[in-house]
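Lab notebook page, bench 4
Experiment: in silico fold of construct C2
Operator: M.H.
Input chain length: 114 residues
Purpose: comparison with the prior construct
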Amino acid sequence: MRLHWTKYAERLGQKGLKIMESILLISDPVLNGTTITYELPNEGSKLEFESQMNGLLGHLKGHLHNHDITIDVIVNEQAETKRSYNNQDRYNRFLEINPNIELLRNTFGLDLKD
């Protein structure tokens, strides 16, 4: 199933549908009986996937000789807080990683600029 999934994605890429190709290759589909579970990172990619899902289903049903196949799409949006770091924050992080940076800073008289 994964082989035909990948071949279909590559064929879409060759036709110029690069976005759909990348959506199909974001993660590996999981087969459970005749249901394929596919996890996508956001609602936008789910909408794009669903708009092209009939072609994929036709391809898989034909090549796998199984017309009972269905695809279940799951959106897994993990909300990550993105924080803007200033120069002092970056310096403090580097200092945690390597305390010798303070010696370097003092030896050459370096200063942080914003």
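Observations: The first helix runs from residue 2 to 14. The beta strands are 30-32, 35-40, 70-75.
Next step: discuss at group meeting.
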